[in-house]
């Protein structure tokens, strides 16, 4: 419904998504021109969230190596963090009561002295620095389509219309989407980015393996003040995951009064009755975890998917007119559970390439290709390569995965020397045993264990309900087969109660959607398509 009479908006470099990778690209690029004493190109950053950081989720222990050389010492000192890692622990959880403390923190997990903070606040800080250098940052604009010329080169994006009713008709506040044209588009949409994934599929840019994901669920817990625990962190693996599903959790004391608790559950799980939100609640109830949050109350909630495929799942990161940075390229070290520093390094590698393109006024595919070479020379890429086969063996057996991780660390990634296969997440679900779901486990609700809808309320999620549903069930007959074989698993794998089974039909309450895209990834029949709601809608994270 885009208005054809509108004139396109022209810019030089367009960054889609205001995450760490995109903002690092913009900041490094503008500062490079400033150092050269040259006039900088026009750099535009757009984000679908209502404000910068509102769709960013990751309470973070930040590896600062990604920001060395990008931020000054003074800027690093002013980063919005309240604590640095002062104490670390690592546990294997056996069941609801038993656990074993690992006497030493594995070298790759050690983070002593790292800042602990909110990624939402960090991206807001980076955006302010970008704007100070001359970048234009616009929020509430969802880039819904890549624009290509007749030769297939990406030349810009089209943003979504606003003010459309549920039948697709313009309302009184209708605003047509914009066409934004650029010399280069930098895709920093994050994990399972819609434009990124469509580009990769259309141009056959996929990695050796397809991407695999975990669902990360997080809460901020307000606890009685305890200055001594600020900066304390803990990691765990095992319970409540089963022995063939990769899963683990963490607790970060971000300040004397705020604790971030998170649990990640691999989406290649097999049991159709699995409910990640319920597993998260069971995780918090374990004595090891409960000791960190006793007397507290959950005050914020969020969920997102984490790309876990690693080195072999990284796609080609350059196409004609476009670069892919950060989580959209799967640049996450799944053993360390860290990707912020790699996102920043990928942004800097992209910026260095774009500086050369601007100086030569050459934005051809050949001129963009050095980005891929620069990326492979970053420390983050070397870390990915070292753990290239760590994730896949966990899909077979937890202990096999642990042994594989140890071998990878000891041999600098040389063993296992073959490419361990990893099936697509949606193919791994098994049919119900006996055709019936087991009785669901009950976990008592309370201040530390909110139910799903209470958590969604705390995420601040808001959608205008008088707009087309952005979650498309492609074939209702396929739903009937899914209900019969798997017991409507969308009710359980969604962390926001978007899908409900009533009278034999799946009902979609898109207003609850957290934009995690778990449904599109895990649906066993690939019968759900995630599309964009109007810009500005969705979660409104402020402390995550």
Specify the biggest β-sheet. 7 strands, mixed
Helix tally equals 15
- Give the spatial strand order of the biggest sheet: 7-6-17-18-19-16-20
Name the helicity range.
25-40%
In angstroms, what is the radius of gyration? 23 Å
Percent strand equals 15-25%
What structural category arises from helix and sheet content? Answer: alpha+beta
Averaged pLDDT: 94
CATH architecture designation of the domain at 9-71 and 122-209 and 311-386: 3-Layer(bba) Sandwich
And the CATH topology of the domain at 9-71 and 122-209 and 311-386? FAD/NAD(P)-binding domain
Amino- and carboxy-terminal Cα gap = 35 Å
Give structural notes.
By secondary structure, the chain is an alpha+beta fold. Among the domains are: 9-71 and 122-209 and 311-386, FAD/NAD(P)-binding domain (3-Layer(bba) Sandwich), CATH 3.50.50; 82-117 and 211-304, D-Amino Acid Oxidase, Chain A, domain 2. It is built from 15 helices and 26 strands. Strands 7-6-17-18-19-16-20 form a seven-stranded mixed beta sheet. A six-stranded mixed beta sheet has the order 9-3-2-15-22-21, with helices on one face. A four-stranded mixed beta sheet has the order 1-14-11-10, covered by helices on one side. Strand 18 and strand 19 (258-266) form a beta hairpin. Helix 7 packs antiparallel against helix 9 (370-376). The mean pLDDT is 94.
Quick rundown:
The protein contains 15 helices and 26 strands. It is of the alpha+beta class and about 550 residues long. It is globular and about 60 Å long.
């Amino acid at each position: 419904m885009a208005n054809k009479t509108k004139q396109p908006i022209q810019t030089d470099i367009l960054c889609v998504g205001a995450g760490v990778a995109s903002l690092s690209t913009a900041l490094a690029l503008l500062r490079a021109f400033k150092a050269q004493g040259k006039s900088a190109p026009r750099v535009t950053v757009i984000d679908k969230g209502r404000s910068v950081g509102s769709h960013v989720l990751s309470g973070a222990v930040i590896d600062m190596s990604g920001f060395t050389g990008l931020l000054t010492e003074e800027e690093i000192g002013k980063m919005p963090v309240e604590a640095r890692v002062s104490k670390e622990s690592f546990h294997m959880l056996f069941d609801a009561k038993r656990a074993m403390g690992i006497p030493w923190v594995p070298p790759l997990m050690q983070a002593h002295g790292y800042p602990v903070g909110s990624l939402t606040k960090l991206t807001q800080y980076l955006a302010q620095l970008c704007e100070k250098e001359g970048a234009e940052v616009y929020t509430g604009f969802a880039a819904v389509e890549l624009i290509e010329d007749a030769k297939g080169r990406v030349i810009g994006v089209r943003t979504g219309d606003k003010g459309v009713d549920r039948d697709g008709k313009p309302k009184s506040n209708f605003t047509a989407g914009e066409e934004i044209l650029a010399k280069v588009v930098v895709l920093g949409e994050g994990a399972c980015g819609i434009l990124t994934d469509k580009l990769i599929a259309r141009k056959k840019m996929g990695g050796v393996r397809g991407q695999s994901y975990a669902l990360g669920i997080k809460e901020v817990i307000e606890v009685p003040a305890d200055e001594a625990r600020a900066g304390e962190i803990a990691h765990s693996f095992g319970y409540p995951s089963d022995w063939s599903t990769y899963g683990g959790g963490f607790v970060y004391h971000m300040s004397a009064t705020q604790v971030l608790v998170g649990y990640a559950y691999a989406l290649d799980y097999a049991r159709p009755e699995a409910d990640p939100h319920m597993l998260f609640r069971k995780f918090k109830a374990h004595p090891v975890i409960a000791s960190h949050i006793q007397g507290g109350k959950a005050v914020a909630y969020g969920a997102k998917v984490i790309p876990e495929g690693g080195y072999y799942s990284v796609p080609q990161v350059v196409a004609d007119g476009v670069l892919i940075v950060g989580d959209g390229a799967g640049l996450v070290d799944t053993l360390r559970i860290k990707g912020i520093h790699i996102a920043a390094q990928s942004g800097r590698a992209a910026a260095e390439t774009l500086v050369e393109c601007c100086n030569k006024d050459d934005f051809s595919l050949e001129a963009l290709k050095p980005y891929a070479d620069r990326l492979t020379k970053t420390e983050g890429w070397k870390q990915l390569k070292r753990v290239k086969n760590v994730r896949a063996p966990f899909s077979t057996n937890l202990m096999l995965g642990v042994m594989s991780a140890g071998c990878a660390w000891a041999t600098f990634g040389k063993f296992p020397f073959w490419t361990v296969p990893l099936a697509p997440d949606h193919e791994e679900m098994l049919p119900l045993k006996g055709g019936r779901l087991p009785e669901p486990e009950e976990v008592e609700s309370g201040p530390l264990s909110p139910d799903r809808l209470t958590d969604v309320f705390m995420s601040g999620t808001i959608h205008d309900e008088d707009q087309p549903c952005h979650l498309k069930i492609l074939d209702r007959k396929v739903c009937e087969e899914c209900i019969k074989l798997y017991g409507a698993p969308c009710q359980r794998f969604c962390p926001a109660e978007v899908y409900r089974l009533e009278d034999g039909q799946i009902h979609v309450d898109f207003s609850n959607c957290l934009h995690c895209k778990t449904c599109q990834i895990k649906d066993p029949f690939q019968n759900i398509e995630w599309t964009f709601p109007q810009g500005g809608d969705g979660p409104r994270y402020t402390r995550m």
